[in-house]
Every structure is written in C-alpha cells, then in structure tokens.
Design a protein that fits this description.
The protein is mostly helical. The protein has helices at residues 19-27, 30-41, 45-52, 56-63, 71-80, 85-90, 103-110. It is globular and about 30 Å long. It starts with 18 loop residues before the first helix and ends with a helix.
Length: 112
C-alpha cells in the first residue's frame, strides 16, 4: 500500500477490546500483538518502525519470534501506537511512561 506524506496509521479503539488482542496483552506476547496491529490497524513493519523508532528489521525479528523485546522496547511499542492505559496495564506496563526519550541523558545534564 502506498502511503502519502504524513500518513499515520490510527489504531481503532475497537482493536484494544478484541479478544485476541487482550489475550496477547495478558500473555505479553509482543509477536502476536504486532501481527494484530498489522492485521487490524494496517501497520506495516515500516510503519511500526516509524512510530516506535525501532528498526524495521528488528520489528520483523520480534514478529517472527526470532528475538525477544526488552522492557524498553515494549514501552516504545506501547508509546508508538498510543496504547490506552488499561491496555498498558494488561501488558504489565505503567499507565504512561513518565520519562520519554533518553532519561539517562536528562539526569546526566541535570547533575553534571
């Protein structure tokens, strides 16, 4: 599918209440979650890479279960797709990420 400049996939609110999405969140099954985002929200691997800042090749590895994501990666995915707080909770994350970006850089700058 060809994307126009500035195109951003929107996750339909109904996606988060789908039985298979809830099951993936509860199981912390990121591979299934990424596949479901592709299927129901239209995200390609490149789209997911764009909204999360994670390389497309790495997204592919997560989707094929070739690599396990770190907690930071899971948070980046949740942030990138604007996951609702209750879904973040099912995934085992805080309702929202308090410190976006590189927290260590901010701490280092504040305390040289």
């Amino acid at each position: 599918m060809e994307r126009t400049a500035g195109w951003v996939a929107r996750v339909p609110d109904s996606l988060w209440s789908r039985r298979e999405v809830v099951a993936a969140l509860r199981a912390r099954d990121i591979a299934s979650l990424l596949v479901l985002l592709r299927r129901y929200a239209g995200y390609s691997q490149n789209d997911l890479a764009g909204v999360t800042g994670i390389a497309q090749g790495r997204i592919s590895e997560y989707m094929r279960r070739r690599r396990l994501p770190t907690l930071d990666t899971i948070e980046r995915i949740a942030d990138g797709v604007d996951m609702p707080p209750e879904c973040r909770g099912l995934l085992g994350l805080a309702p929202e990420r308090r410190c976006r970006g590189t927290c260590q850089d901010r701490v280092a700058a504040a305390h040289p």
